[in-house]
Amino acid sequence: MFHHARTSADEQDVWLREHFRSRTAGAEFMLPWTIDTLFGTVAALKSLFTPAELKTIIDAHKNIIIDTSHLRLTHLLLHVMEQSDRKELYKKHGSNPRNLETKFRQLDDAQASVLILWASAFWRGQTCSPQALEKYIAVK
Asked: Is residue 100 part of a domain?
């Protein structure tokens, strides 16, 4: 199971300086493979969920502020189910809550974290139109 370290920004800075010349050098080293890993995981997750389920997940993450404590499978499961029930997202997008829950339970914390970040990212700076959503969930 994937666990997030609870480190302060100062501890992260010290670690980066110990392993790299500077924080910037560390970021430059990590960014390309972090993005590749993220996109690979997103592609795999998109193929696991139906378009209706992906829309439900994205809609459930509208207007939320992500905290590292949210980056867990249990949070994904509870948050999407609660938001979907409250806002009738299953009905809106035509997804099945039991199927969605079954698929969530197949994920580990790392995959759930990526799904949370990806779903939330749609609402950051995107043109949030139905066409943009269709493009965002498309499997390439």
From this structure: yes
d(C-alpha 132, C-alpha 140), whole Å: 15
Tell me whether residue 30 is in a domain: no
Please give the structure tokens belonging to residue 12. 């992260």
Give the chain as a DSSP string: --------HHHHHHHHHHHSSSHHHHHHHHHHHHHHHHHHHHHHHHHHS-HHHHHHHHHHTTT----GGG-SHHHHHHHHHHHHHHHTHHHHHT--HHHHHHHHTT--HHHHHHHHHHHHHTTSSS--SHHHHHHHH---
pLDDT at 1: 35
At 52, list the tokens: 């209706």
Of 8-22, 55-69, 83-97, which range is least confident?
8-22
**Which tens digit of pLDDT belongs to each residue from 113-130?**
999 999 999 998 768 888
The answer to whether residue 29 is domain-embedded is: no
- Give the number of domains in the chain: 1
**Radius of gyration of the chain from its Cα atoms, rounded to whole angstroms:** 17
Q: How far apart are CA 131 and CA 106, in angstroms?
A: 29
